[in-house]
């Protein structure tokens, strides 16, 4: 019974991590465009590189979260990196997460502005307030909410991908032409090499979600359930990447100059789909913003306490201000690639420690902390 897998729980947890990953950058199409689609057909191969790495990292982190029962999810950095380097990574993760929080707030404003033609600060404010209210409910409620939203996000991305496949089948030259033109259309690129772009994106996902992944692993009933949730989440996320890459290549001509490529594609496929997709993008951004905000505030206070609520309100207000003033695509291009590089050292240390643990040469005790998850 201790290794029994509850499939409903696996999909809730997998949905939660997908919802965490599929935030503003992904749902608007900017992340996938800059890391994958800009490389044309090779962007599809890059997605498989990403899948292999992200499933490996998630497997390790969820397993560690379930095994070590960290009292504070940020303790995972000291566990893998040691006391001093671990502290560097803890604060890097906090600063990074808050930067991503601002990026996603900007994405929310850009999306609502592009479709509803309202000032970006109104869209940013709407996302910020909705996310804050969710965060105040605590981590358990948040996981249950976004665990349902995650699969909905993927479903709508798949719809766009299927429409692109149908278009490509009717006009086979569109895919070939799009693949050849993508590098020449002026899109920002995370890297000059498609395989390295896929790897960098996996490292980005690792760095931005490490505390949350540890929390998901802890919420699983046992190591088998944790591992199943990690792999399921990685595979579902990759499916979404593949469909979106395909769509952006096929519809390359209509996404040039667009802050929100997915919305432009959805509008091309069907105005009704565009309306629905606007709601989905807002849901994507809201769930990811709420998740990231909660993990940032958890560094400083236990959820559902006065201190936690006060910090959450202040950080939301600051994020709403900066998210309304900085262009979204520039934020993505500046912040995300740097993060991917910074995650490489952590990934190496993480894998090295797991190898030592497996060989019985590491006697490190379980992570300690003064906050309960």
Automatic annotation (TrEMBL):
The chain crosses the membrane at residues 45-62, 88-109, 121-139, 151-170, 194-218, 230-252, 272-296, 308-328, 334-352. It comes from the Bacteria. Keywords: Membrane, Transmembrane, Transmembrane helix. Coiled coil: none annotated. InterPro entries: YkvI-like. This is Uncharacterized membrane protein YkvI.
